[in-house]
């Protein structure tokens, strides 16, 4: 397992997207995440009910797919907005390096 | 995206592990899932606060790693208990076929 | 990147499968690997011809899928033959631990 | 398995990178691919010698890591050169859409 590799990329608690997310955008992403949260709670119930291991694993894999898809949406928005704008303004290098790192991290 | 492939494996709502999970086992898994649920709620807050895209993606990737690890624990328990017992009792074929499918599903 | 993690699993140069591969089995796997070798040579030609980056990446991803499928076949054979026999003979523990490690390694 | 999904992205046999690869760049990539080709031939010998399944799987996983790394290098070069230039010249949209598809394809 290589979770510790995530520290290769610095977190930036005060940083915002170059183009702020609209309220509607936020709502869409949050709704997807709420569904995922519900799926994780569903998993807990499956364990509580001592459901068959394979069924739980299939459910975990569905949640992973949902997280991955949400991640791709964010990645696409980031590339089209933040990275593209940085490139246009001549600051692309740093943003592309960071993008490559996050893609590697994300596709592990 | 290939989530629809999950239907290759049937769900078995009434099926239980061959060896029931002890209360302590259940508790351990549920605790891990509760932490993951908390992380998913944390993601929602990050989106609400319009946090930087890359930070959100790193956090998604941490949740994916946590889910994967939980899945591996369940997979190991399933193999050591359900699959191994089925093999000893001469019903291994079906269990191993199912195991291979779930591994493929899980490592997508 | 985490290739160094592969050292978690020991190599066993003198070890054989518990049930030897038949000549036909060997031939089938080797044929798949020869096709993959040909695809890797094809990649070199694409680079030499200065083909478009995305086309090369698609081709790399096709080779990865072919390798993954070959790996799954070997994994299935290993589980049905080596692991299942070890379980029947009461030596399952070690084989299942090793299987779990190789699955983790393989699905990274 | 989802290899057929690769057809989502069109191949462009006549298309070149926006900035041609230098001879040195080509040589470096080809050398990496030659090493991978050698590893695939090594796999064939392992099968021929009836080597232990797990050892072969570890070796497959090492080849996958090498291919993945080569892919990342190409992806990075593509993003820094082709995509960034297209963005600067106002044709970024198409290139970023294609980039997102290839990342999804590649991280499956």
Automatic annotation (TrEMBL), chains A, B, C, D:
<keyword id="KW-0238">DNA-binding</keyword>
<dbReference type="InterPro" id="IPR003735">
    <property type="entry name" value="Metal_Tscrpt_repr"/>
</dbReference>
<dbReference type="Pfam" id="PF02583">
    <property type="entry name" value="Trns_repr_metal"/>
</dbReference>
<dbReference type="InterPro" id="IPR038390">
    <property type="entry name" value="Metal_Tscrpt_repr_sf"/>
</dbReference>
<dbReference type="GO" id="GO:0003677">
    <property type="term" value="F:DNA binding"/>
</dbReference>
<feature type="region of interest" description="Disordered">
    <location>
        <begin position="1"/>
        <end position="26"/>
    </location>
</feature>
<protein>
    <submittedName>
        <fullName>DNA-binding FrmR family transcriptional regulator</fullName>
    </submittedName>
</protein>
């Amino acid at each position: 397992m290589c979770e510790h590799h995530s520290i290769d990329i610095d977190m930036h608690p005060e940083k915002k997207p170059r183009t702020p997310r609209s309220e509607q955008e936020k709502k869409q992403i949050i709704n997807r995440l709420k569904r995922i949260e519900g799926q994780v709670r569903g998993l807990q119930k499956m364990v509580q009910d001592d459901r068959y291991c394979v069924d739980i694993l299939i459910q975990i894999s569905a949640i992973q797919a949902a997280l991955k898809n949400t991640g791709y949406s964010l990645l696409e928005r980031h590339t089209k907005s933040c990275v593209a704008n940085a490139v246009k303004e001549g600051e692309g290098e740093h943003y592309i390096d960071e993008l490559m790192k996050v893609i590697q991290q994300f596709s592990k």
